[in-house]
Write a structure and sequence with these properties.
The chain is α/β, with parallel strands linked by helices. The chain has helices at about 20-30, 50-60, 80-100, 115-135, 155-165, 175-180, 190-195, 235-245, 255-270; strands at about 5, 35, 60-65, 100-105, 140-145, 170-175, 205-210, 210-215, 220-225, 245-250. It contains 9 helices and 10 strands. Helix 3 (about 80-100) links the parallel strand 3 (about 60-65) and strand 4 (about 100-105). Helix 1 (about 20-30) runs parallel beside helix 2 (about 50-60), helix 2 crosses helix 3 (about 80-100) and helix 3 (about 80-100) crosses helix 4 (about 115-135). The structure holds zinc ion.
Length: about 280
């Protein structure tokens, strides 16, 4: 088993705030992963991609990517769907070039569709994306469908597993915090891993952060805060070690790599050795 830990985006504490500067900081902190954030736009170009590929390989940093937020493959507006496909494809194309293993995507809103209708529409649009990936020779990077927090967003755990089961080449991107928020502040890590078994994944990609509690509504909301215990990290680490799961856990905490270090220390305290 192998565990990969690192921040979502460039290290906040790196002096050199570029992607390559962040990689050096990750190495210095003895972490081993980073997510490249294309959330506003795909900022890496064909020209800069080879350098990122080379440096990450040289330093042993495993990469994932986050696709732009403005994606909705279930929109009623054809232009939004087409634009979403274009953004996803561009994220996948550049991710392939930098050697990223998986692109996390907030794939859709229900947009007035029932879950079944949304799945049908998604499957057809995902097929178009895979056809284009094939045409463009994109064959290594995976498309990861993220588990989402808000009820307007497609993607509770069961829905994501259903799509991944039916569409070859799509994998779940587990956002632990989103599952916790969607379930009103509850998560059973063991149950999540049990449910995922049907997909026979050889590696699990995931995000971890903690969520804010809104004292007025009495609910947890999809706002990330530094690690406290909503949800707790240690039971997740224990479950991963018990099941010997290969996993990437990207910290989406506001203090990014500082929480990755806490995750690393938690695994080490439980007996895992990072090589
Ligand atoms: Zn996300």
């Amino acid at each position: 088993m192998k565990i990969f830990l690192g921040p979502a985006g460039n290290c906040a504490t790196a002096e050199d705030r570029t992607t390559l500067g962040s990689f050096r900081k990750i190495k210095e902190l003895k972490l081993n992963a980073q997510e490249i954030e294309f959330v506003r736009k795909v900022y890496v170009t064909e020209k800069t991609a080879p350098e990122i590929w080379k440096k990450s390989k040289e330093l042993g940093i495993s990469l994932t990517t986050h696709a732009p937020y403005a994606i909705n493959l279930c929109s009623n507006a054809k232009s939004i769907v087409e634009n979403s496909k274009r953004m996803l494809l561009e994220s996948l194309r550049i991710s392939e070039m930098i050697g990223s293993e998986c692109v996390a995507a907030h794939i859709a809103y229900y947009s007035g569709l029932s879950p079944e209708q949304a799945i049908k529409k998604l499957k057809s649009n995902l097929k178009d994306i895979f056809d284009k990936m094939k045409q463009n020779g994109i064959k290594n990077v995976k498309l990861g469908l993220e588990t989402m927090a808000r009820i307007s967003q497609f993607g509770n755990l069961d829905e994501i597993i259903k799509v991944c089961k039916e569409v070859k080449g799509v994998v779940p991107y587990i956002d632990w915090c989103h599952i916790f928020v969607r379930n009103n502040g509850n998560i059973n890590y063991s149950e999540v891993f049990d449910k995922l078994e049907i997909l026979k994944l050889d590696h699990i990609y995931s995000h971890f952060s903690n969520s804010k509690y809104n004292t007025i509504s009495g609910k947890f909301v999809d706002v990330h805060v530094p690690m406290n215990s909503n949800p707790s990290f240690e039971p997740l680490a224990k479950e991963i070690l018990k099941r010997k799961i290969d996993i990437t856990i990207i910290s989406e905490s506001p203090i990014l790599e500082e929480d990755s270090i806490i995750m690393k220390e938690t695994f080490e305290k439980l007996g895992y050795k990072f090589s």
